[in-house]
Amino acid sequence: MVQRAAPDYSSIPGLRHLYFTRRDEGDVSRFVLVTIWESIDAVHEFTGPNADRAKYYEEDERYLLELDETARNYRVFHAS
Fold it and tell me: 36 and which of 6, 14, 16, 40 could share a cystine (Cβ 3.0–4.6 Å)?
């Protein structure tokens, strides 16, 4: 993730923050990628026209137990 996805995401102007989270559950580790973008236009620079479609890399099938078809997009309405 750090070697493949982070440089890809970071190559897009408008990416403000990129977080990789991990939760270990016995022999399984669950990961969630959280990104903060300056605008939906910046998101579309990365995703193309459909920001709700998940993006995967060729090697992901070897490592991931599940491949969600959709990405979950949220708007920040308050930060402190």
Answer: 16
Tell whether 78 is covered by a domain: no
Question: What pLDDT, in 10s, does the model give residues 37-70?
Answer: 999 999 999 999 999 999 999 999 998 889 999 9
What is the pTM assigned to this prediction? 0.84
CB neighbours of residue 37 within 10 Å = 22
Helices (H), the chain: 5-10, 40-47, 60-63
CB-based contacts of 33: which residues, under 8 Å, 6+ apart?
Answer: 1, 5, 18, 19, 20, 21
Q: Please count the structural domains in the chain.
A: 1
**Which domain range does residue 30 map to?**
5-63
